[in-house]
Write a structure and sequence with these properties.
Layout (H helix, E strand, L loop, with lengths): L15 H9 L7 H18 L1 H16 L11 H33 L8 H4 L8 H8 L2 H27 L1 H6 L5 H42 L3 H12 L2 H22 L5 E4 L4 E6 L9 E7 L1 H12 L4 E3 L1 H10 L11 H20 L20 H5 L1
Parallel strand pairs: 1-4
Antiparallel strand pairs: 1-2, 2-3
Helix pairs in contact: 2-4, 2-9, 3-4, 7-9
């Protein structure tokens, strides 16, 4: 099991941040065996597929190269021009194969980890020149795996090559009894298909190496639990800082809520533990809206602000608990509380009218009917 410098076991899968940092550093899963297999097999198939056109082109190139006009024999630069022309023709013939190999090389190299360019990964590092570290890499478990892979490739490819040549030995010996033209064609076919068969053995090596490289890459990026905790602290912030931020946010929210209390039409209390402030505008609101609520100290502050701004305070424990439990700030009260709140607002409006006009005060509210599904027992709410 992998360990970090502190000796802690790396048992946790890498986080998204760890994977992103590894890509930024150019540390991604790569398989050289996959690249070698793809390039070798693509080259072999391309040579077999294009063998006829390549053979014809090379024949014409050889004929034209060795047919030298007499005038060119006496011109110093003529041979150089003929050589440049021959090289240009040869490159044009090989250009499709070369282009195919370039595309395959790029595609096979990015099929695992994708296209990544990292200046950090190509920057020179003096630590790589340390012979002790180099010896440590050679003698490491990964170095041993690479040695075993090299030996496995040697024996596998060598064995397949031996079998291919042994099975085709009669065909190769039979070329000596054929004419030169047909013999060359048969030789090209034998060599080409032998190359394809031998290259196909690289598929088996790639099928083993690709999962290993993916596993080894994930193993190297594994993290300890402490590393994950440290990363979460860096990403989300330390608990004490987050707690302070939440505290400031609550204070700001309470200040904004207290600014709405003077605008309320009525404060319904429990009478001491809970307080809710309701506002109702017949022209703009379909139902009364909760503009402030709180318990204990916050409830005391709401009542104090209400008294300072002469906002009526009505004691109705069951209604206060129901509104507090089932209504969020800024939302209208539940439909089941419409009747009870309407009685409270009617009482408040009658009370104001009696105070302004000097009439008789309205009778006490008494017990309000609260639907059973909205009732909140006092013991449960206080707990």
């Amino acid at each position: 099991m992998a360990e970090n410098e502190d000796g802690q076991d790396k048992t946790e899968q890498p986080t998204a941040k760890r994977l992103q940092e590894s890509r930024r550093k150019g540390q991604i899963a790569r398989s050289r065996e996959l690249n070698t297999m793809a390039i070798t097999l693509a080259g072999a198939v391309a040579l077999v597929t294009m063998s006829d056109s390549l053979g014809e082109g090379l024949s014409q190139l050889m004929r034209s190269a060795f047919q030298i006009p007499r005038a060119d024999m006496f011109e110093p630069l003529a041979m150089l021009r003929r050589f440049a022309s021959a090289m240009q023709d040869a490159l044009l013939m090989l250009a499709p194969i070369m282009l195919l190999l370039v595309v395959v090389a790029i595609g096979s190299s990015v099929v695992l980890g994708g296209m990544v360019f990292s200046a950090e990964s190509i920057a020179p590092k003096l630590s790589k020149l340390n012979p002790m570290k180099g010896l440590k890499r050679i003698l490491s478990a990964k170095g041993l795996v690479e040695l075993l892979k090299a030996l496995a490739k040697f024996f596998l490819i060598g064995g397949v090559t031996t079998l291919v040549i042994w099975n085709s030995l009669d065909d190769f010996l039979g070329l000596g009894r054929m004419e030169l033209g047909p013999a060359m064609d048969e030789l090209g076919s034998l060599v080409g298909w032998s190359f394809v068969l031998i290259s196909s053995t690289m598929i088996l090596i790639a099928l083993v190496d690709v999962p290993f490289q993916l596993w080894d890459h994930t193993r190297q990026l594994k993290m300890t639990r402490q590393e994950i905790r440290d990363e979460m602290k860096e990403t989300e912030g330390r608990p004490e800082v987050k707690g302070r931020i939440r505290s400031l946010q609550r204070e700001m929210a309470q200040r904004r809520m207290m600014e709405e209390v003077p605008k309320a039409d009525v404060i319904v209390t429990n009478p001491t533990h809970y307080a809710v402030a309701l506002r109702y505008d017949q022209e703009r609101m379909q139902a009364p809206k909760l503009v402030a609520k709180g318990v204990d100290l916050v409830a005391t502050n709401i009542r104090q602000v209400a008294r300072e701004h002469q906002v009526p305070v009505v004691e109705s424990p069951m209604l206060a608990r129901a509104i507090y439990a089932h209504t969020r700030l800024g939302e209208t009260i539940p439909a089941g509380l419409y009747l009870a709140v309407a009685k409270v607002l009617a009482y408040v409006f009658q009370l104001r009218a009696s105070q302004d006009e000097g009439g008789q005060k309205p009778s006490e509210l008494g017990q309000l009917d609260i639907p059973e599904d909205l009732q909140v027992p006092a013991a449960t709410e206080e707990a």
